[in-house]
Design goal:
With 249 residues, the protein is of the alpha/beta class. The protein folds into three domains: 3-75, Roll (Ubiquitin-like (UB roll)), CATH 3.10.20.30; 98-185 and 241-248; 194-231, no CATH class. Helix content is 26%, strand content 19%. It has seven helices and twelve strands. The protein has helices at residues 35-42, 105-113, 126-135, 145-148, 164-175, 208-213, 233-248; strands spanning 3-8, 25-28, 49-54, 57-58, 70-75, 98-100, 118-120, 139-142, 156-158, 194-197, 217-220, 226-227. The protein has a five-stranded mixed sheet, with no helix packed on it. Strands 7-6-8-9 form a four-stranded parallel sheet, with helices on both faces. A three-stranded antiparallel sheet has the order 10-11-12, with no helix packed on it. α4 (145-148) links the parallel β8 (139-142) and β9 (156-158). α5 (164-175) crosses α7. The longest helix has 16 residues, at 233-248. The chain is elongated, with a radius of gyration of 22 Å.
Length: 249
Amino acid sequence: MPKATFRFYAELNDFLPEEKRQSAFSVSFSGHETVKHILETVGVPHTEVDLILINGMSVGFRQKVKDGDRVSVYPMFEILDISKLTEVRPDPLREPTFVVDNHLGKLAGYLRLLGFDTLYENDFQDPELASISCHEDRILLTRDRGLLKRKQVTHGYCVRADDPKDQIVEVLRKFDIANYVQPYTRCARCNGLLKPVKKEEVLDHLEPLTKKYYDAFMQCQDCQQVYWKGAHFQELHEFLTRVVEKSKG
């Protein structure tokens, strides 16, 4: 049976069993598989890969692996521009928009609070998530490696952190989008855009104490949810400020 030697670098090792991390290892195959098929069989989603070298030459996902090949697989390069070298990176999206699976609801809320167009429903199924990501050019965020292996998905990321407060920092860092934040411009509930609204226009939506003590309001253009800088706003604002600053570090 043909064999090839694979070596995965940096955070791609997160997807490998302990004994295969940070080292070269042999993979047996039938002789007809593409490199994409083999690396996903090993456990690494193609959306995490930015550069593949076979015997030192850059190749695409459809390249067939041959007996004796040495395959080096690299993740997204944060600093170096390898756009002229890589054969696997999809065309970059013009602006960062997301679709988030149903296990990352708090992360979706944080992204919306920071102004990022983020689709989320707690009943999205895998085929629907993949279809939305593909047809609406959205980055798919998930912790489901199998979902990222779907051929339809070209832009996706497997979130590593468990805590949503760490997840939002991770995503901002991963896609280098801290400078794109526009806080409090989207509805945390439905993702609609917010607009300033006169107090008298939303009186029916307000509790008596809110009517008494607050005068400045924003309203979602889609679901009509009303927002104001209430008692917890300062705490929220300080948290989001820390998130953005931490993601730049």
